[in-house]
Structure formats: C-alpha cells, structure tokens
Specification:
This protein is mainly beta. The chain has one helix at about 50-55, and strands at about 30-35, 40, 60, 65-70, 75-85, 90-95, 105-110, 125, 130-135. It has a single domain, classed as Beta Complex (Metal Binding Protein, Guanine Nucleotide Exchange Factor, Chain A). The chain is globular and about 40 Å long.
Length: about 140
C-alpha cells in the first residue's frame, strides 16, 4: 500500500469557531457583541450606576440607552472628532467590533467642560449592540 501524508478523515477536526483578540474569564459576567458574540467588556469595568446618578445623567447613544465602561476589549477606534453631545462639546472617536466591524459606540478622547473630564479615556457602548454573557441570573 502507498503511504499517505494526510491523516485519516476521522482524525481531521474541522471547526469554524471565531477567534477574538481577547477572551474574558468565563467566571465573570461579561458583555458581548450581539452581532458576533465577541467579548467586549467585563461587568467590573462598567461605571457604577451610583456614579452615573452622582453626575446626574444617564447615557444615550444614537440607538437608545448606553453604558459607560472604564475599559473594553476587541474593539477598534476610528479618528477623533469634535461633537456636541447632550452634555456639551467632546472629542470622541467611534469604536467598532474588531470581529464584525459593527459600530458599537464611542470613546471619549477629550471633554471640554471640567464637569465632564471624568469621561476622558472611557468608552460608551450602546445596549442595542450588546448581549450579557456568563454568570447572569
């Protein structure tokens, strides 16, 4: 019999799983992209509702409510531009899912009003683009 360099068919394992840049721990509550399920943020990175109430505002995106996060994963960032938002003038950059390229929200690059400086370097993700994963009950 002729020798074959290919493994027998029963040994070949074909998968179509997606690969993300970063995976968040399965033991923590996380938020994922609703379109492709790429991990986006750990619940611990969500700016607390107490903080939001302290600053007397909730967050609104173009498609409804949004959450403010200290840090996110698996997102790309577009160029910064000045926009007048509900809370005044900010320099923001749109953020998008690195996996499926859906625009998710924005990153606050600069706040022009002193009361809004706490947002600098933080990320807004609209609820319409997120799903809760791992450990939510």
């Amino acid at each position: 019999p002729e020798l074959s360099e290919e493994p027998p068919a029963e040994m070949v394992k074909m998968t179509k799983s997606k690969t993300f840049q970063a995976y968040l721990p399965n033991c923590h509550r996380t938020y994922s992209c609703i379109h492709c399920r790429a991990h986006l943020a750990n619940h611990d990175e969500l700016i607390s509702k107490a903080s939001v109430l302290f600053f007397m505002q909730s967050f609104q995106g173009s498609q409804g409510r949004a959450y403010l996060f200290n840090s996110v994963v698996n997102v790309g960032c577009g160029p910064a531009e000045e926009r007048v938002l509900l809370t005044g003038l900010h320099a923001v950059a749109d953020i998008y899912c690195e996996n499926c390229k859906t625009t998710l929200g924005w990153k606050y690059e600069h706040a022009f009003e002193s009361s809004q400086k706490y947002k600098e370097g933080k990320f807004i993700i609209e609820l319409a683009h997120m799903i809760k994963d791992n450990g939510w009950e």
